[in-house]
Design brief:
β6 (120-128) and β7 (133-138) form a beta hairpin. The chain is built from 26 helices and 17 strands. The strands form 3 sheets. The chain has a 6-stranded antiparallel beta sheet. A 6-stranded antiparallel beta sheet has the order 4-5-6-7-11-12, covered by helices on one side. The chain is an alpha+beta fold. α2 packs across α3 (99-110), α5 runs antiparallel to α26 and α6 (234-251) runs antiparallel to α19 (520-528). The protein starts with a strand and ends in a 7-residue tail after the last helix.
Length: 638
């Protein structure tokens, strides 16, 4: 796991690659390297966190013996042994055993088509000397980040956006659509970032760059919801799921350094640890969790995690290390925003950071995560809510409008009523708009109303849903609604939110985070299972739970739904209040010119009076202003 940076079309004398890569030092503390092709105005740089082949043979940038191709790469390819064996049969003699070298020679053999043979997580750039172009790609599910800027015949890319912004390689003018997305969703979908001049390489996408210009972009992978649904019994399906999860975990234990695991006590992380324990019966696996010792998470609608984590650790006979934090964790909010690159308004990112730091202190540089289970098998409350639409979606629009009004009138002080109200709030919309609305924290009207009128001149309330509606347009019409929602989960909530903060927080502590539940074969299996094997009544992840009954205690599998949460609603009124009052003061808002001071004040008052659930939207405003002070004003905390 590493950090990469490079350019095409810039004069090499004006580009200090070592300085650019140093911004990514946290991603790669073990080694660094640069490669410049002056005649072509191309440069590549790398910071290394050594995981596979710790020797000099794993150094990057890495070239073939002929120097015809050179690569910088961030990630892990889990089917490396099989690919290496194939290349060796073709006569390739490797200098080491790193997956980087395998990718390099795979490209020499298959060219761009080699992407379809990779099962792993990656962001890569390959300089092809013969074709005189850069080949750039990001993994299928978007586990590893990759940002770029392209303008006026100059192109630059990096694992983290901060490299491009701190070096002045991209203008910092904000993208109003992305700002609206951060208010409505807490993240920005598709290629958007908060900065207009910087874009994300989307998951499963690749591009060719020549002479500083993108000459071709394409999608080489999409989530397999266009495949036929399997005809398989419940018992057969459970066996298949158990087999694929075990296979995925076994693959992702590939490492030359110790591997540990997150263990929240939820089904996903517990299943990963159980499979790791089975694959490594003679190894004492090191697991890590967090205890938030401040107030109660009950207001967030979650149950306590720690007792379940301890129960699983005892059952599986693994070591469990706990980091205990309290309200002082919010003192690191500015640091969280800096490492995230994007103002993701989710304090769960801090939990991931603290756990990663604890793992690093114990000598663990690779952690297995349970991320992805809810996104491929179901598990979020919106999946159950979507299934309940069958009781009212057939009603004529006027009747659904009454349901919508009733949902909007429900009190938000109760977690249950808050969720019911949100589920019904968009009942009068068309099916595609309703699907998109399940991901919204604010209504489009209220989100747009928070923006300064001049700043948002090009936007309408419908702008908020457009990126997700565009993604839905890529799914076959006959696809079941639940699978359409899972498509959006993986395409956006997972890639643009959960995976983004998981990678950035892990790498901030120089820890690689792997996600076995997003193994490509497991993702394909989950997509092809009947929908009632995934969400059955109130039971999410039904078939996954069945599959894990032979490995985990019943009370762990069927425990109340929880999350990596903190008592944010309480903190906004206590520990965070002075910061909120400063960042969201009318003077601060007017000076920035993005938001409308009166609308922000009205939202805060409505939230305090419990007329709306504005907690996370207020936190989004806080995070965006913090981000602006860092990345626009240059007041970096690191």
């Amino acid at each position: 796991m590493c950090g990469i940076v490079g350019y095409s079309g810039y004069e090499p004398a004006a580009m200090n690659l070592r300085a650019l890569a140093s911004v990514l030092g946290h991603r790669g503390p073990d080694d660094e390297g640069q490669f410049v092709f002056e005649a072509n105005r191309v440069g590549l740089a790398h910071r290394r966190l050594a995981i596979q082949d710790l020797s000099e043979a794993g150094h990057q940038p890495m070239a073939t013996r002929s120097d015809a191709t050179v690569i910088v790469y961030n990630g892990e390819i889990y089917n490396t042994p099989e690919l290496a064996a194939e290349l060796k049969a073709d006569g390739i003699v490797f200098r080491g055993h790193s997956d980087t070298e395998v990718i390099l020679y795979l490209y020499e053999k298959y060219g761009e088509a080699m992407l379809n043979r990779l099962n792993g997580i990656f962001a890569l750039a390959i300089w092809d000397k013969r074709k005189e172009h850069l080949f750039i790609a990001r993994d299928q599910l978007g586990v590893k980040p990759l940002y770029y800027t392209a303008e006026g015949g100059r192109f630059a890319f990096a694992s983290e956006m901060k490299v491009l912004l701190r070096a002045g390689l991209a203008d910092t003018a904000l993208d109003p659509q992305a700002v609206l997305s951060h208010l409505g969703y807490l993240w920005s979908p598709r290629e958007q970032t908060l900065v207009r001049a910087v874009r994300k390489v989307e998951p499963g996408h690749a591009m060719i760059v020549k002479d500083g210009r993108i000459v071709r972009q394409w999608r080489y992978y999409d989530l397999p919801y266009d495949q036929p649904i399997m005809s398989v019994s419940e018992d057969e399906a459970a066996d298949l799921v158990a087999e694929k999860v075990q296979q995925a975990v076994r693959r992702q234990l590939l490492s030359d350094v110790p591997v540990g695991a997150f263990l929240s006590g939820g089904l996903d992380s517990s299943a990963v640890v159980a499979c790791a324990r089975k694959a490594l019966p003679d190894t004492r696996i090191q697991c890590f969790t967090i205890a938030v010792n401040d107030g109660s998470v009950a207001d967030e609608g979650f149950a306590a995690d720690l007792p379940y984590a301890q129960r699983v650790a005892q059952h599986l006979n693994v070591d469990l290390h706990t980091v205990e934090v309290g309200p002082e964790m919010v003192d690191r909010l500015a640091q969280m925003i800096y490492f995230l690159d994007e103002p993701t308004a989710d304090p769960a990112a801090l939990n991931a950071l603290f756990i990663s730091e604890l793992a690093r202190q114990h000598g663990i540089t690779v952690l297995l995560s349970g991320s992805g289970g809810d996104d491929i098998f179901t598990g979020y409350r919106r999946h159950f809510a979507l299934q309940q639409e069958r009781y009212w979606s057939w009603l004529p629009r006027p009747a659904r409008s009454l349901l919508s009004a009733a949902g909007g009138a429900l009190p938000v002080s109760s977690p249950l009523l808050r969720r019911v109200g949100k589920a019904l709030q968009y009942a009068d919309k068309d099916p595609a708009e309703r699907l998109a609305s399940y991901f919204m924290w604010l209504t489009p009207d209220r989100a747009l109303g928070l923006l300064n009128r001049d700043f948002a001149a090009t936007l309408t309330p419908s702008s908020l849903a457009q990126p997700l509606l565009a993604s839905l347009g890529q799914v076959p019409q006959h696809t079941a609604d639940l699978n359409k929602m899972l498509y959006l989960e993986c395409k956006h909530f997972l890639a643009d939110h959960n995976l983004n903060y998981t990678d950035k927080m892990g790498m901030a502590a120089s820890v690689e985070v792997r996600v076995p539940l997003l193994d490509l074969e497991l993702v394909e299996l989950a997509a092809r299972l009947p929908v009632n094997y995934k969400q059955r009544g109130r039971e999410g992840k039904w078939i996954f739970k069945r599959a894990m009954e032979r490995m985990l205690p019943h009370d762990v599998i069927y425990r109340p739904k929880t999350g990596f949460g903190v008592p944010l609603r309480s903190w906004l009124q206590t520990r965070l209040k002075p910061l909120v009052d400063d960042l969201l003061s009318p003077e601060s808002i007017r000076r920035r010119g993005i938001f409308d001071p009166a609308a922000v004040d009205a939202l805060r008052r409505a939230d305090q009076q419990q007329r709306v659930d504005g907690t996370y939207s207020i936190f989004a405003l806080v995070c965006m202003e913090l981000w602006c002070r860092q990345y626009i004003d240059g007041r970096y905390p690191v």
